[in-house]
Amino acid sequence: MERRIVATENAPEAIGPYSQAVVAGDLVFTAGQIPLNPSTGELEQDDIGVAARRVLMNLDAVLRAAGSSLERAVKLTVFMTDLRQFARMNEVYAEFFNGNPPARSAVQVDSLPGGALIEIEAVALLGG
Q: What is the mean pLDDT of the chain?
């Protein structure tokens, strides 16, 4: 099985030895996205809702560059530094997944790159 590396300027560039996403077969595997604005390089996280929205926008940009989208996602993993903010994150998350949302896990972590409040990674189907 061949693999293809995905990179887009519409999401924050990889800060280290990893790819924004890798396509393998009919699946896209993304790196985790944090709430960095790709235009300014600044974190957007006035609150967890703002941060979650930026992360999901970044994630969708990476998936679209790969030939997929959030609508084709089958599994997301959400990493948060404070799960007490889960309900607010979930409100924003629901805006991006109407109808049949993907499977999801959410875990609390001690810290995230750049002091981010949230990071999300995805596995999605190609196409659509």
A: 95
Q: Is 6 strand, coil or helix?
A: strand
Tokens of 58: 């970044």
pTM of the full structure: 0.95
d(C-alpha 56, C-alpha 44), whole Å? 12
Residue 96's SS3 state is helix
What fold does the segment set 3-125 form as a domain? 60s Ribosomal Protein L30; Chain: A; (3.30.1330)
Give the model's pLDDT for residue 110: 97
State the chain's maximal CA–CA distance in angstroms. 42
Cα 28 to chain centroid distance, Å, stands at 12
